Amino acid sequence: MNEKQRKATTLVNPSDKKSEKDYSKYFERIYMPPSLKDAKKRGKEEVKYHKDFEIPEQFKGMGNGRNFYIRTYGCQMNEHDTEVMAGIFMALGYEPTDRPEDANVILLNTCAIRENAENKVFGEIGHLKPLKMENPDLLLGVCGCMSQEESVVNKILKQYQYVDMIFGTHNIHRLPHILNEAYMSKEMVVEVWSKEGDVIENLPKVRKGNIKAWVNIMYGCDKFCTYCIVPYTRGKERSRRPEDIIQEVRHLAAQGYQEITLLGQNVNAYGKDFEDMEYGLGDLMDELRNIDIPRIRFTTSHPRDFDDRLIEVLAKRGNLVEHIHLPVQSGSSDILKIMARKYTREQYLELVRKIKEAIPDVALTTDIIVGFPNETEEQFEETLSLYREVEFDSAYTFIYSPREGTPAAKMKDNVPMEVKKERLQRLNNLVNEISAKKMKEYEGKIVEVLVEGESKNNPDILAGYTRKNKLVNFRGPKSAIGQLVKVKITKAKTWTLDGEMVEEAVEVN
Ligand code: 5AD
Ligand code: SF4
């Protein structure tokens, strides 16, 4: 970060007391690029909670007669950020459109987790060029995790000069200002704070659907697994206050939502940053389970921070579902060590044993990376044997992708790509085999399904998910949409279940 950028950051950083309300100097600079080096720093500064988000008076009506379109890549955190940005657009008077050609503002909410995710976005920016050329009034913006990377911002500045705005994951609440600046300026507006440690409450949201909802419980990640870009793109761990989360969930329950997913990059670290109290995810779940909402999930877990208190609370069941996504990444203690996962194969297996003891029918799913630098055949086989031992219900599997700025990207790697691909194939075969076997056990059983809508391929068929997150397709009345119904499973496939509804929709609220 150079001196000019440092000054720019201090000028607008809302966590800086002196500049809290003084944004006047802000518009002197519109170029504020990210710095990976800065993003890595974890200071001792307290998390500040801003509860007074409002659309500034001068921007109200900015979107009247204009449409917005947001394309979202990546994880649920990004999906939820899109809901917040949609909320801000609507509060500004914009209308949503699902056709980019009808939009006055197009945003790409991007994902940086692997290289192919990034390549897709660059491809899309290229595809949007003709639209932008045809309609110079169109604003084109890039936001989300890729915007937090220096190399990406530099590439856009150089190769995609028709992009109007780049803003980062910490700058979402600044959207009205950024849009205004983009309308006023001929230059590309770049506003990316590298390290922001605040929590902004009361942001407007337009949720996708009225059956399931996401609720952020914390932001950021301090784990710094050596392959992962997230701690750089999402900043330090900071938890929302329990009372704000409980209020949001209560409100969603009152609105008739049936399922909540609590979101965070490492939800098990929830509450660790509170200085005034000892309060963790287990405590939060114990309070949330008293709210009248049929299902509560959370994602994503880190095995290292998964404590006994949480297991004890999850074992109370009720609206806490019997499904835990517990990324293992590798079955080899040596690889886990170089990944800086901070647990061994044995510790992971011990955690699984404890969870299964408390919740015997629990469904466990996981994330696995194959082909980490220098992974040997034996180490890979340890991943296969761990998978077999745990008998995961399913897994997201990935080939390791080097991310610039992370420690693993600097490691020499002696594993050829063909070997990585072959390992992925072998792992996927095992994942499919075990999934098919576990799905078969459902045949003839009755499950509770939260009906989400018509099946994608056949409008006569309804589709929904069980508590353990299995997709079920079945014939039933449209009135069942949004309800919890009982379905008898008639046929198991590798990834989905077919069934018949065995009773009319039950009113759950
Ligand atoms: N390469 C491949 N997979 C990755 N993941 C995170 N970073 C990388 C990377 N550099 C995977 C991990 C994580 C999931 C969200 O993405 O498995 O749990
Ligand atoms: Fe990335 Fe998850 Fe590790 Fe955090 S805990 S660094 S988000 S893999």
From TrEMBL:
Broadest EC class assigned to this enzyme: transferase
Cofactor note: Binds 2 [4Fe-4S] clusters. One cluster is coordinated with 3 cysteines and an exchangeable S-adenosyl-L-methionine.
Occurrences of domain Radical SAM core (ranges): 207-437
InterPro entries in alphabetical order: Elp3/MiaA/NifB-like_rSAM (IPR006638), Methylthiotransferase (IPR005839), Methylthiotransferase_CS (IPR020612), Methylthiotransferase_N (IPR013848), Methylthiotransferase_N_sf (IPR038135), MiaB_methiolase (IPR006463), rSAM (IPR007197), rSAM_horseshoe (IPR023404)
Keywords from the UniProt entry: 4Fe-4S, Cytoplasm, Iron, Iron-sulfur, Metal-binding, S-adenosyl-L-methionine, Transferase, tRNA processing
EC number(s) per entry: 2.8.4.3
Family: Belongs to the methylthiotransferase family. MiaB subfamily.
NCBIfam families from the UniProt entry: miaB-methiolase, MiaB/RimO family radical SAM methylthiotransferase
Physiological role: Catalyzes the methylthiolation of N6-(dimethylallyl)adenosine (i(6)A), leading to the formation of 2-methylthio-N6-(dimethylallyl)adenosine (ms(2)i(6)A) at position 37 in tRNAs that read codons beginning with uridine.
Protein name, as recorded: tRNA-2-methylthio-N(6)-dimethylallyladenosine synthase
Organism: Aeribacillus alveayuensis
